[in-house]
Amino acid sequence: MGDPHPNPPSASPSPPSTDAPKLRARSLARSFGRGAKALAALGPVDLDIVPGEFACIVGPSGCGKSTLLRIAAGLLRPSAGELSIRTTAPRPAAMIFQDYGIYDWKTVLANVRFGLDIQRVPRKEADARAHDWLSRIGLAEFAGAYPAALSGGMRQRVAIARALAVEPEILLMDEPFAALDAQLRTILQDELLELTQTTRTTTLFITHSLEEAIVLGDRVLVMSARPGRIIAERRPPFERPRTGDIRSTPEFTALKSELWDLLRGEVRGEAALV
Ligand SMILES: Nc1ncnc2c1ncn2[C@@H]1O[C@H](COP(=O)(O)OP(=O)(O)OP(=O)(O)O)[C@@H](O)[C@H]1O
According to the UniProt record, where is the region Disordered (predicted)? Predict the structure, then answer.
């Protein structure tokens, strides 16, 4: 999460601006393998995410969502086109995976402090910021515990706190709640909603769940079956700050069914390929 990587996307420090995109992809594509066996996984994709925006991507399994996120994180190079992240300070993108990615041999506090240690934030300040985040996620009393003593939901909260503690320029989240049961997932969605509405961190969030995308997103982008392209986008019609209560509104149900209609054909197409 937020760690140095071999192929950082081009990052150009520039003065803050309200409208210039924080993340920009142009004709971005990625394939795996060569020659006749090459597999077109993604694209071409054009995408702009503006500062403070929470963009959610939904799409059928295997359509290239993780590939897009891995390119944004600099873990993978594009085969064609480009993706750039505009930064105003040398702060990292922070990434949260499905499997938490926290370190079992570090205490909860040390896990949350991890990114700050990498940034060489002085220990006293780093401890204070990590404690503050532990309080915000309701885990203050677990500071000295090891992850083995935590439930799945608590581990995922630690991963989220660790990512947000570094105040990343952009937060990249790949199905962070996929491994959790439905109730816990709802609780953590609501918590993430509250946290990100406070921080207004620019976020690219990948999910299989339309509900999750609508609750959290300023914009929901729908991807086609592989090779994934963006085939539609919708803006959930809910003012911010919003709460999870929007789930019970007619607008929510209507948008969910509209998005499902868009996705259904893509999921079917993918099933037909298997
Ligand atoms: N390193 C790799 N080598 C070869 N093929 C890969 C590699 N990474 C991904 N792929 C293939 O690229 C396609 C897109 O994969 P990706 O993981 O991006 O999809 P996804 O939309 O995130 O899937 P899911 O929703 O199931 O997690 C898949 O067919 C996958 O098998």
Answer: 1-23
pLDDT at 13 over 80: no
Residue having the nearest C-alpha atom to atom 23 of ligand 1: 62
Atom 31 in ligand 1: residue holding the nearest Cα: 62
The atom number, within ligand 1, closest to the CA of 175 reads 27
Tell me which residue has tokens 């996120």.
69
- Closest residue by Cα to atom 5, ligand 1, is 32
Q: Quick: pLDDT tens for 182-226.
A: 887 888 888 888 888 888 889 999 998 999 999 999 999 999 999
Which amino acids bring their CB within 6 angstroms of ligand 1?
A: 32, 39, 41, 59, 61-67, 226
pTM beyond 0.90, yes or no: no
* Contact predicate 152/179, CB 8 Å: yes
What are the structural domains of the chain? 19-102+169-273 (3.40.50.300)
Confidence bin at 179 (pLDDT 50/70/90)? confident
pLDDT over 70 percentage in the chain: 88
d(CA 199, ligand 1 centre) in Å:
31
Residue of the nearest CA to atom 9 in ligand 1? 67
